[in-house]
Design goal:
single chain, 474 residues, alpha/beta, Alkaline Phosphatase, subunit A, Arylsulfatase, C-terminal domain, ten-stranded mixed sheet, 11 helices, 18 strands, globular, binds 2-acetamido-2-deoxy-beta-D-glucopyranose
């Protein structure tokens, strides 16, 4: 039906009002910790993740969404839009007693969003350095922060090694004794919603859950969902995933009840592949957390929105990298990403399935581990040893028969289009492709900054700070 021009204008305006597109959207960025490829319902029907599955199936499953092999570097990407080899965070994670940090000259996504009027809150795991207050969340763009600075602490006691690590803004915080981390995080997220006006304010809510990183701990009622899994570690781990799913369900229900969903985008991603030694599984992908294999770097992810996505209910296979979220979300919010950032705006890809804005990305360049990997088109080149978990770890109770520590050739080449599970190194058949990719890798290496990998500093000792892992020692 043809519409007259005035009618068309009215229809478009009505649409904008209904869709809320006239205003920048609320952005809820949810990060799971160490969630494996094969640990979500849409990849494995053994998993009970009804809330995540519903949003994934009604939103867009991101089937080619890449992250870094470990925690700190991925969070660096989400926060800065730069590869870790440009911020000095390319080598491993920041241990609580090491004075590592995300350099303060990088403007974070929440800082940029605040500049354009957003209210910004964070609940969960930071892991981007805390030896000085200036490196911590409320100094890096967040109006409030509840959570922990480091990683791998107990889910109920919030203790790691000999120190307590749980904060509310700049004060040590004690949630009710024994309350499970996923519940603490969802309760605080919902409390935040009650402080924000869904119509006249814009919310950026960053929710990096503790779940489902080791230690393997979960209340019995979640573990019992998986009573038919005989291996204790896998059973507990799967229960942890279901607790995370319930927490996300509670938050999305609250978003909808309070009117945020009329104009909200939810991004869900893991920070790295599953730790196959701690209950997780990445099949059919090779390797896991800490490795440059797809099992370490290709992450379970989706986007969901009631109204903002043009094309939904499908699996998107376009190449997206963790650094892309910064420019994608900032542009969506009406801001301008800095020129020269490693990330690119992927909103056309994510929202309507347009071809990816990139055909290349760097998995990592780590001069200390002496390894690197790059993707160009369908090809992936790995230099050096990809890591120490190099097989296709089966689901328990089978033993990990595929663990192999190499040795590996100096360069391996995989055609991920035909071999996404990295079974066939084709480097010797395609020396031309290898040499082209080495050229691209050298190009990126030339811009790499040295890894900031300082040794442990005894000044970090929690005994100096009333038993807490605390800022104030660098
Ligand atoms: C356990 O039971 C669930 C639900 O009945 C089923 O979907 C799943 O495949 C079973 N898992 C195993 C390992 O048998
Ligand atoms: C997701 O990616 C895998 C591996 O690349 C591919 O085999 C599969 O067909 C993709 N899924 C969909 C639904 O496109
Ligand atoms: C931050 O400082 C480092 C070291 O001086 C420099 O390499 C980098 O380009 C700077 N980055 C930004 C975004 O200013
Ligand atoms: C943390 O900061 C937020 C935002 O300013 C505030 O609403 C909240 O009450 C603060 N919490 C504590 C415990 O200081
Ligand atoms: C979700 O909400 C229900 C109902 O309030 C509550 O019992 C449950 O503990 C919550 N779960 C999580 C993980 O937050």
């Amino acid at each position: 039906m043809e519409m007259s021009r005035p009618l068309l204008v009215i229809a478009v305006l009505a649409h904008l009002v209904v869709m809320g597109a006239a205003k920048p959207p609320h952005i809820i960025f949810i990060v799971a910790d160490d969630l494996g490829w094969n640990d979500v319902g849409w990849n494995n029907n053994q998993m009970f993740t009804p809330n995540l599955d519903k949003m994934a199936s009604e939103g867009v499953i991101l089937n080619s969404s890449y992250i870094q092999p470990v925690c700190t570097p991925s969070r660096n990407c989400f926060m800065t839009g730069y590869y870790p080899f440009h911020t000095g965070l390319q080598h491993g994670t920041i241990h609580p007693n090491h004075p590592g940090f995300m350099p303060s000259n990088f403007t974070t996504l929440p800082q940029k969003l605040k500049e354009i009027g957003y209210t910004t809150h964070m609940v969960g795991k930071w892991h981007l350095g805390f030896c000085n207050w200036k490196y911590t969340p409320t100094f890096r763009g967040f109006d409030s922060f509840m959570g922990f600075f480091s990683g791998a602490e107990d889910y109920n006691t919030h203790i790691r090694d000999n120190g307590y690590d749980f904060w509310f803004n700049q004060s040590v915080h004690h949630p009710p004794e024994g309350e499970y981390s996923a519940n603490v995080i969802s309760a605080r997220a919902i409390e935040i919603l009650d402080t924000v006006d869904p119509v006249n304010e814009q919310l950026y809510l960053y929710l990096p859950f503790q779940s489902v990183h080791a230690p393997l701990e979960v209340p019995e009622r979640y573990e019992s969902i998986y009573a038919n899994i005989s291996t204790k570690s896998r059973r507990t781990y799967c229960g942890m995933v279901s607790a995370l799913d319930e927490a996300v369900g509670n938050i999305t229900d609250a978003l909808r009840d309070r009117g945020f969903m009329d104009n909200a985008l939810i991004v869900f991603t893991t920070d790295n592949g599953g730790a196959t030694w701690a209950g997780a599984n990445n099949l059919p992908l090779r390797g896991g957390k800490t490795t440059l294999w797809e099992g370490g770097t290709r992450g379970a992810a989706f986007v969901y929105s009631d109204y903002l996505l043009q094309k939904t209910g499908y699996t998107n296979n376009e190449m997206i990298h963790a650094v892309d979220w910064f420019p994608t979300l900032l542009t969506l919010a009406g801001g301008n990403p800095d020129a020269g950032m490693d990330g690119v705006n992927q909103w056309p890809t994510v929202s309507s399935g347009a071809p990816s804005a990139r055909s290349e990305f760097v998995y990592n360049i780590d001069e200390i581990a002496k390894n690197a990997a790059i993707r160009v088109g369908q090809y992936k080149l790995i230099e050096g040893s990809p890591g120490i978990f190099n097989g296709w770890t089966p689901l328990p109770p089978l033993a990990d028969s595929a663990l192999s520590n190499g040795p590996f050739p100096e360069h391996q080449l995989f055609d991920l289009q035909v071999d996404p599970t990295e079974h066939h190194d084709i480097a010797s058949d395609h020396p031309d492709v290898v040499s082209k990719m080495l050229g691209r890798l050298s190009f990126h290496k030339a811009t790499s900054v040295p890894a900031n990998n300082p040794p442990a500093d005894p000044a970090s000792d929690p005994n100096n700070f009333g038993g807490n892992w605390s800022p104030g020692w660098c």
